Amino acid sequence: MSEILAAAVNWVVTVSVVYAALVATYVVACLVIERMSRPLAAAKMQARTTTPEQIRRDRRQSIVSLAAIAAMFGTGHWLYAEFGIGWQPVRSWWGFILSLVASMLLFDTWFYWFHRLIHVRFVYSWVHRWHHLTVTPVTWSNNSDRLIDNLFLQSYWLVAHLLLPVSPLALVIHKLYDQITGVAGHSGFEHGGIWCWPPSPLVGVTHHDQHHRYFLCNYATHFSLWDRLMGTLHSEHDAELKRNILATAAAKRAHSVPAE
Ligand SMILES: [Zn+2]
Ligand SMILES: [Zn+2]
């Protein structure tokens, strides 16, 4: 009995720690990226603005939504740490790096195909519509989803240890990367820079901003590989991404040179 109680306490502690870490990462990333975007007004991607009510809606829903993600991530970790459920990672530095890259590729695949599924007409209205009510996203829009939406896109974190021999630390690093780039991806300003310059497979902010604007394109989250392979990348993606990277660089230069 005491063993069951100890395991239950461990579950509550694990999920609570994950939730606190996710909320802290979300809030700090939103504030820092908003601060970085402030001097870049000239490089804003969409002319449209988002109403304060809509931003408050997204912020409120994100805080709720992160609890569902924390429950899935925390439960996956708890099953692995408490009961050894999942693959044992290769204990070497190269095993660590390989498993981190593999996790990013696998999650991107998971996200791409489930994201396409929840855009199918009859599924869309009860799963994913909430997230797309914001057409001009801001940082705070990142986790504004319904619970059912998270069950499709974020359940990867519940089963990751069953899919890959990945260490808990590699998964934590991957999730933090996902959280921070997700917030940046909704900021409305191209912060990706030279790392995302085509043909780099890394997506910039333009990729998901176009998804909110044009809807039936750009379904992946870390890389543009699946969208290119399946023909779902927006036809103007590369051209607009280059324009936006250059516009951000120009706005930064203009901001750093004081007006005469
Ligand atoms: Zn979508
Ligand atoms: Zn979005």
Structural commentary:
This protein has 260 residues and is mainly alpha-helical. It contains eleven helices and no strands. It has one domain. Helix 1 runs antiparallel to helix 2. It is globular and about 65 Å long. It binds zinc ion (2 copies).
- Extended strand count: 0
Helicity range = 55-70%
Mind describing the biggest β-sheet? none
Provide the succession of SSEs. Answer: HHHHHHHHHHH
> Mean pLDDT across all residues, rounded?
96
Separate helix tally: 11
Radius of gyration: 19 Å
> In percent, how much strand structure appears in the residues?
under 5%
C-alpha end-to-end distance? 75 Å
User: Quick one: overall form?
Assistant: globular
**What small molecules does this complex bind?**
zinc ion
Q: Which features would summarize this protein structure in a list?
A:
260 residues; mainly alpha; 11 helices; 67% helix; globular; binds zinc ion
Task: Explain the layout of strands and helices.
Elements: H1 2-37, H2 52-83, H3 93-117, H4 121-127, H5 129-132, H6 147-153, H7 156-163, H8 168-185, H9 205-214, H10 225-230, H11 237-256
Helix pairs in contact: 1-2, 1-8, 2-7, 3-8, 9-11
The structure holds zinc ion (ZN) (2 copies).
One zinc ion binds next to loops.
